[in-house]
Amino acid sequence: MNSQLKPNVLEVSMLRRLITLLLPATMLAVSATAEAAAMDKCPAQGGTVRAAMAGSPPTLDFITSFAAQARDMGVYIYEGLVTVDGNYDVAPQLAERWTTSTDGKTYTFHLRKGVKFHDGSPVTAADVVASVERFRGQSPRKADLSMIASVQAVDDSTVEIGLAQPSAAFVPLLAYPGPAVAIMPKKLIDGVAAGKLPQTSVVGTGPYRVAEWVPDKHVHLERFAQYSPASAEASGYAGRRLACIDHIYFVPVPEVSSRVAGLESGDYDYAQNLKPYYEIVMHLNTQQGQLKEWKLRRAIQLGLNEEEIMLAAAGDKALYRLDPSLFFKEQYWHSMIGANRYNEHDAAKAKALVKDGGYDGSPIRIITSSDFQFMYNAALAMESQLRQLGFATKVQAYDYPTMIDIFRKKRADWDISYNAFSIRTDPGGFTFVLKSDSGYQPYASKEVDTLLEKALVERDRKVRLKLYEQVQDNLYKDVPMIKHGDLFGFDALRERLDGFAPFYTTPRFWNVWTKDKR
Fold this sequence. Notes:
28% of the residues lie in helices and 21% in strands. It is an alpha+beta fold. The strands form five sheets. It has a seven-stranded mixed sheet, sandwiched between helices. Strands 14-18-13-17-15-16 form a six-stranded mixed sheet. A four-stranded antiparallel sheet has the order 5-6-8-7, with helices on one face.
């Protein structure tokens, strides 16, 4: 994977004014990656970090939430059988190795020895079986692993997972980092209903454990002294993750200006998402409200000026790019299929379709998130354009978890919902977003469902690509979703921290140490 997919950390030239403001906050150099990756032990142990985050997690039960804030915490607390490395490839985590049967339908995972949960109990195959089955039953991403037919413990350190049919996407989807297939103690999760996991049962195998969670105030993680790191060099979420810092406080600070001010004053050591890296999208409600009518959805698609929207979201032309693909340019899966319907910016034709589509003048209800300034700004720019096309509008901003809850569970309350997608390590990661029975969004297409099902089991990469191109073509024709563009980003931290290297969309404080002990 091209390193350009990693978030920038105060390295963009047009941000000189912000960089000057943040000094002595440090501009994170990519060279830190090699030093941290090669560590056998912490250069220094101890200290406390206060991280200013974009929002507060709705839950610490990692398998149950799409919220980025849940993932931000979850990668510290939990681990899976497999994860993704710095190149976004599958890598071992709790499984030291795995084998595949000749027919591609049976996977055998061999667990690392000596790994303990935060409560001191050893990790066994029975815990893995219970955790995978819980994910299959309760996770909103359970459709991604619909190919699983059976999960069983062969012995205490061996797990066998049988598939109904071979799937090239199975292991990459098992590794996807959120909602993740987090391995937890069987005794703490058996019989616990979805959404009912008590805080005392938030127990994983990660380098940090929960010391305290006060919703909307902070999540306090402390070093897990009995943590058993993998032996491979640290890379992405994989390898030798060392907890050099004793305490981490993740503090929700929704306003970007407050995160910047707190970093400058020294109240915080790190500030998240001053600009993130996502593709910005908006979902259109195909089942209820005005936008059930295809002509109105097509009118919106036809009339939008994506350059204007992305400039409003990013603030500078160097911090975004226009691109029609579901997948980033740096990925094998990138495609220009449907590009003729992207950023057409034809207001005259759009206005004619608004009239032809029978629009009745009632407001188009737009929901967005105030947790992410880029998302809020994009919504306002898009709303202005809708008004120019002849639509009445109403924008409502929420914290991100509330917005997602309304988007998924209160379909009668919105017409357009904003969202942002981080990189999908395998295109199968879009199955939960697009498949009719996943319940993620209102869109339902038998043709797309069939294509997604075929792509999940297809083992030829070139054939898979063609299938996902057909999915993308259908999305541009049916218009359940409109992509605005790709947003680049950066985070920032103070010079007292060393070893930090950017990865994915979450801050990474393992293999990071403080230059002082405060």
